[in-house]
Amino acid sequence: MFKTISLPGTSALLKSPFIFGVATASFQIEGSHNTRLPCIWDTFCSKPNTIADNSNGNHACEHVKYWQQDVQMIADLAVDAYRLSISWPRVLHQDGSLNIQGMAFYKSLLQALKARNIKTYVTLYHWDLPQHLEDNGGWLNRDTAYQFAYYAHIVTQQLEGLVDSYATLNEPFCSAYLGYEIGVHAPGIKSQKAGRQAAHHLLLAHGLAMQVIRKNCPKIEAGIVLNFSPAYPFTPDDERAAKLADDYHNQWYIQAVLEGRYPEVIKELANDAKPDVANGDMAIISQKIDFLGVNYYTRIHYKNTPDHWFSEAPLENIATTDMGWEIYPQGLCELLLSLNDRYTLPKVYITENGAAMADVLIDGKVDDIHRINYYHTHLNAVHNAVEQGVNVQGYFAWSLMDNFEWAYGYEKRFGLVYVDYQTQQRTLKQSAIAYRDFLKQRQK
């Protein structure tokens, strides 16, 4: 068990231009729900049996209220960069006009970060679709992709000079599959056709937004953030299941973005489950990106099913996080190498990596040695991938602080910083101190 975070002294991760940061998402931390439009997660939280602890994002970490102390907290961690998302329903009114108060919040936040020489990595969509757009079909409505492009236009105009890097979407897999296909995330729709169609419209939205970013701020790098849970066969006889699962959950998104086509698994789908793809869509989706954001937490084992499809095969007697996810750091290295072998990749950022642990605050201290060990082993996995030729240029720890963990509510804590949701007191966990010490040592 590692009690500190370290890398080999010769590691490229310790040298410029490699950047280290922390990451958050708007709905998970901001609170202040009365100053924005309702989003699909507000609606989802209000329904019975959707959120584990029956909570919502109305208050979360009250970041809109405490943003100044949070910026200082970020600076004190000695990071190079902060990855955040813009809340679509906070910056636009329903008629499409600018919410001046909402945009002013982000301008002040980004200016404060800039003043501390912290690079700003802005994600335009981290799942909080305005509810009025969902009422018109949400991501099942092709027009939502064009609405997103308009939103991207307003944001990139308004935040000129304040952003170092734009990501269009965070984890379209989660938005589409969890939200529209199996219904465990907002908006709670359960339909394979809906899931595949939502995925296509999300990717179309990415492509349209990329065109907007190129036009409005051509000197700013732009890309997309995709999550990967590498698929492994449960037994040697389950290779086909693992391949199908990988194509369906992982390659579906990256292959469309980088190569302009969906994987062969699309041919396995019934005709009424395949997405409607208009002429020219794949060319829009697959224009050049400057970076690929990779989110990695765990791997998944799959087994064959009688109907020649795949299903998850849970393992026994393995180390897991509080989410029940296997801790498998070498999977991050294996993932990066496999992507690098399969595709011509742009530069890569690890845009999310971290662990939920059953943290307890005792005498003002959270002794989360298991999280320190998680970060140490996963950072060394990134180092190993870079040593073998993968062009990784940044790493963002998820998350800066404990927050609203979607369908788990406030039951799961991913933060480097412990949040008491009653008092909004922030306390640096031992992992935050270890991360800070590691970064300060690097900067000497």
From TrEMBL:
It holds the Pfam family Glyco_hydro_1. One of its GO terms (molecular function) is beta-glucosidase activity. Substrate binds at Q28, H126, N170, Y297, W398, E405, W406. It comes from the Bacteria. It catalyses: Hydrolysis of terminal, non-reducing beta-D-glucosyl residues with release of beta-D-glucose. Gene3D superfamilies: Glycosidases. Its EC number is 3.2.1.21. It is an enzyme of class 3 (hydrolase). The active site is at E171 (proton donor), E352 (nucleophile). Belongs to the glycosyl hydrolase 1 family. This is Beta-glucosidase. It comes from Pseudoalteromonas sp. SD03.
